[in-house]
């Protein structure tokens, strides 16, 4: 994740979020689910620029722009308005969003875009990154936005408001594959079928994530994605994709990210992930396929 200054513009990358694990620990009385997820970020993502000195606005372009929905409902504008409610006389501006990530795929593209908008506004207004008003606006904008604010690997808990200190991960390389259709988060959770007040386990303590690569793979194998079976029930093609990823040479682990439908396979080196992308992409023209490295 980088911030650059162009002539008259501020620019931020909005990296894809990958849920390496996703445990559903229960459902609160208000209907929100309590989660625990080891989250990392990638070297690919959307791009967001901000032009100051003009009214708040947003334009969206790029290869996946058509999937992003109505501009007025975009999380970039929602996050900006939420911060403006908390910071008197906040300087705003016109955002331009280049969409590269698929929508509804479990990569947190909209949340990462919103977090990028908050970082840009903080920079424009000389707000400290740890200003509590930024964190408040992030959580109000969406459950995944707080963990996207600094783009560092962390364990996310609760409904997204409880974040562990940054987690040190070994080098991990991945191929991300979107099968060409979205899955609605609410539909996947509905299939899971938890009743209000129902619990499914206790959170793991901070420090439980291993730094050693082999130990980390063992940890990931023991801590899966609790939404994967529900997603496959809604869309069996997700299960077919996972089986395909597991047959790739050098694949150490294949899993769905978030509530789907994008899946990922992990590899020990960049060459293996790039070879996997080259093998999958040309043969499946309806898929979104990218090789990437995960943030450390």
Q: Could you name the key traits of this structure?
A:
2 domains; alpha+beta; 9 helices; globular; Ribosomal Protein S5, domain 2; Alpha-Beta Plaits; eight-stranded mixed β-sheet; 296 residues; 27% strand; ATP binding; 4-diphosphocytidyl-2-C-methyl-D-erythritol kinase; four-stranded antiparallel β-sheet
Structural account:
The protein is an alpha+beta fold and 296 residues long. It has two domains: 3-163, Ribosomal Protein S5, domain 2, CATH 3.30.230; 173-293, Alpha-Beta Plaits, CATH 3.30.70.890. The chain is built from nine helices and twelve strands. The protein has helices at 75-86, 109-124, 132-141, 145-148, 185-192, 213-222, 228-234, 236-246, 270-280; strands at residues 3-6, 9-19, 23-27, 33-52, 57-61, 93-98, 154-158, 162-163, 173-178, 253-256, 263-267, 288-293. Strands 1, 2, 3, 4, 5, 6, 7 and 8 form an eight-stranded mixed β-sheet that branches. Helix 1 runs parallel beside helix 2 (109-124) and helix 5 (185-192) packs across helix 7. The termini are close together.
Number of strands: 12
| Largest sheet descriptor | 8 strands, mixed
Number of helices: 9
Estimate the global geometry from the Cα principal axes. Answer: globular
CATH topology call of the largest domain = Ribosomal Protein S5, domain 2
Distance between the termini: 11 Å
Which structural class matches the secondary elements?
alpha+beta
Cα Rg: 19 Å
Specify the CATH architecture of the largest domain. 2-Layer Sandwich
Give the uncertain stretches in residue-range form. none
């Amino acid at each position: 994740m980088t911030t650059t200054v162009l002539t008259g513009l501020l620019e931020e990358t909005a990296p894809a979020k990958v849920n390496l694990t996703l445990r559903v620990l229960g459902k609160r009385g208000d209907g929100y689910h309590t989660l625990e997820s080891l989250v990392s970020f990638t070297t690919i993502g959307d791009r967001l620029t901000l032009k100051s000195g003009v009214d708040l606005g947003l334009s969206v372009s790029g290869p996946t722009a058509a999937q992003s929905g109505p501009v007025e409902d975009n999380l970039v504008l929602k996050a900006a308005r939420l911060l403006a409610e908390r910071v008197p006389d906040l300087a705003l501006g016109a955002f331009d969003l280049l969409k590269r990530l698929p929508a509804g795929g479990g990569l947190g593209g909209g949340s990462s875009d919103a977090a990028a908008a908050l970082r840009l506004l903080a920079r424009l207004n000389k707000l400290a990154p740890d200003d509590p008003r930024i964190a408040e606006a992030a959580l109000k904008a969406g459950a995944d936005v707080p963990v996207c604010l600094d783009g560092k690997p962390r364990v996310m808990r609760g409904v997204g408001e409880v974040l562990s200190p940054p987690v040190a991960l070994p080098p991990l390389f991945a191929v991300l594959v979107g099968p060409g259709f979205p899955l609605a988060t609410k539909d996947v959770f509905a299939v899971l079928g938890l009743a209000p007040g129902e619990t499914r386990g206790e959170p793991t303590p901070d420090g439980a994530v291993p730094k050693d690569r082999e130990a980390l793979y063992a940890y990931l194998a023991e801590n899966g994605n609790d939404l994967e079976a529900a997603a496959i029930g809604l869309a069996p093609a997700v299960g077919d994709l996972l089986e395909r990823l597991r047959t790739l040479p050098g694949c150490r682990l294949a899993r769905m990210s978030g509530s789907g439908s994008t899946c990922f396979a992990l590899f020990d080196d960049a060459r293996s992930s790039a070879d996997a992308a080259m093998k999958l992409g040309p043969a499946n023209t309806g898929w979104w396929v990218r090789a990437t490295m995960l943030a450390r």
